[in-house]
Amino acid sequence: MWLKETSAPERKTLTAAFAGYGVDAFDYMIYTFLIPTLITAWGMSKVEAGYIATGALITSAIGGWAAGVLADRYGRVRILQLTVLWFAAFTFISGFTQNYEQLFFTRAMQGLGFGGEWSVGSVLVAEMIQARHRGKATGLVQSSWAVGWAIAAMAYWGVYALVEPDLAWRILFWLGVLPAFLIVYIRRNIDEPEVFKASQAHQAATGQTSHFLEIFAPRLLPTTLRASLLSTGMMGAYYAVTTWLPTYLKTERHLSVLGTSSYLLVLILGSFCGYLTSAWLSDKLGRRLGFIIFATCAGTLVVAYTLIPITDGMMLVLGFPLGFFLSGIFSGMGAYLSELFPSSVRGSGQGFCYNFGRAVGAICPVLVGYLSNSMPLGNAIGYLAAGGYLLVVLSALTLPETQGRALDAHN
Q1: Is 254 left (phi over 0), alpha (psi -120 to 50) or beta?
Q2: Would you say 23 and 88 are in contact if contact means Cβ atoms under 8 Å apart?
Q3: Residue 374, exposed/middle/buried by CB under 10 A (0-12, 13-18, 19+)?
Q4: Is residue 167 in a domain?
Q5: Distances (CA, A) of 394 to 178, 290, 383, 389
Q6: Considering the domain boundaries, does residue 28 fall inside one?
Q7: Contact (Cβ atoms closer than 8 angstroms) between residue 318 and residue 310
Q8: Is the CB of residue 87 less than 8 Å from the CB of residue 110?
Q9: Which residues contact 352 (CB under 8 A, 6 or more apart)?
Q10: How large is the greatest C-alpha to C-alpha distance in the chain, in angstroms?
Q11: Is residue 45 part of a domain?
């Protein structure tokens, strides 16, 4: 297995990034399970529920780029710790909110750290791992999203089985403080990548300085724009589906809490397998082809899942491949974006492109809420997701292939 070929520092970095992104997923996805409860408890509309999700995603875009900029200046490890502490604290505070406005604020603040953690963690892993394993390594880290999502689904089922809904949703938010303990592991075990140290030393020796706005300079602007569109398609489709799927299963498919969790666990298992498979394909077939294959398959399955009349049993069967392609498409992104930008602005470039997509894609949960007032919720999800995946295919066709590209202080 390729992990046997990695060094101890590389494996420690992978462990920290895997755990960080997994708890990131738990803290974000737990809200999607609580939407039906909050709609009942506070009388929120679907549009307001969508606004909360969208608000967190927009601030995560700001946090992602800001964290990338800060990581280029102050180091990957230090900023990674800050992002983990930030999103854990505000998830915990969300459990004390009393109305829509308060929850909107705390989730928006949580989003700053949520977006920053991926940006910094993925750059850290990409710079630490050998080029021939970079796609597999960043894909492995990406797969922890499925782990965090699964833990959120099981926690949702377990807490709701033991506690009344009025208290259960608060407990689930309070559990979000636990990731703060990850900071201790990061501080003790992770050092800055040699590539980053070399880049800093080169700038100090030559007097050259970089500015985060260099990603908009003529030589990088075409790459920045096209990579941002690639991310936008992925994010828009993904958030349209995952934000509203628990509500779709409960309100239109009339599944119980246990039934909803069961369907989602099948989807999540597919997601985990998709992340790992896509990571291997990214190193084997190339980044662009992997994106095109997964976007095409994901779009087809979302349409089947939400727009074509199928039985509940068929939905359960389709849940695995849907999760496989829906999530697996992201595996190559950490490696790909790192390879597109030079070391001096790698954090800024990766943070901006990924999180620009997150910000624009964040509109989709609200659009689904609006569209569901005039059409079935499943139709609204399906239309938006299909459009997002079409954008992925078109963007991937215009970008360069970077498979196997070495990263050093100058590229």
Answers
A1: left
A2: yes
A3: exposed
A4: yes
A5: 41, 13, 17, 9
A6: yes
A7: yes
A8: yes
A9: 64, 65, 68, 215, 224, 228
A10: 66
A11: yes
Residue 10 CA to residue 223 CA, distance in Å, equals 29
Local structure of residue 410 (DSSP, 8 states): T
Taking the model in full, what pTM does it have? Answer: 0.75
Are 59 and 111 within 8 A, CB to CB?
A: yes
6: helix, coil or strand? coil
DSSP, res 177: G
Over 338-384, what HEC string results? HHHCCHHHHHHHHHHHHHHHHHHHCHHHHHHHHHCCCCCHHHHHHHH
Least trusted range by pLDDT, from 76-80, 226-230, 284-288: 76-80
What is the rounded radius of gyration, in angstroms, for the C-alpha atoms of the chain? Answer: 20
Residue with tokens 């403080």: 177
Residue 406 lies in a domain: no
Q: What is the dihedral of CA 54, 55, 60, 66, to 10 degrees?
A: 140
What is the span of the domain harbouring residue 169? 8-398
Number of domains the chain is built from: 1
Q: What is d(CA 22, CA 122) in angstroms, rounded to the nearest whole number? A: 13
- Domain of 252: which CATH number? 1.20.1250.20
Angle between helices 221-251 and 333-340 (to 10 degrees): 160
| pLDDT (tens digit per residue) in 187-244 | 777 887 777 677 767 666 665 656 677 888 888 899 999 999 999 999 999 888 877 7
Q: How many residues does the chain have?
A: 411
3-state secondary structure of 258: helix
